[in-house]
Specification:
The chain is mainly β. The protein is built from one helix and five strands, in the order E-E-E-E-E-H. The strands form two sheets. The chain has a three-stranded antiparallel β-sheet with strand order 3-2-5, with no helix packed on it. It has a two-stranded antiparallel sheet with strand order 1-4. A hairpin with a 5-residue loop joins strand 2 and strand 3. The N and C termini lie far apart (32 Å).
Length: 79
């Protein structure tokens, strides 16, 4: 279900862009350039179901904005 999502960076040594997406796979919030090792809460501020973490700056480099759609598929195990 969609809920406000919260994370922290206390064990993460690099800056991330964190994208939050709702059930329709629409990006509803983006937190850019998070601070490595920070204990500050990184919140979606709005209800979201999915979280996508990418290297800091990725969303700017690729022009990703709130309202964009994301999609993914699961790959079958090749073993």
């Amino acid at each position: 279900t969609n809920d406000v999502q919260q994370f922290w960076m206390s064990n993460t040594p690099i800056s991330l862009d964190i994208m939050y997406a709702n059930e329709a796979k629409e990006i509803v919030s983006i937190v850019k350039y998070t601070t490595p090792f920070s204990q500050e809460t990184v919140s979606s501020d709005v209800p979201a179901r999915y979280v996508i973490e990418v290297e800091g700056g990725f969303t700017d480099t690729h022009g990703i904005i709130e309202g964009d759609q994301v999609d993914w598929t699961l790959e079958a195990d090749s073993q």
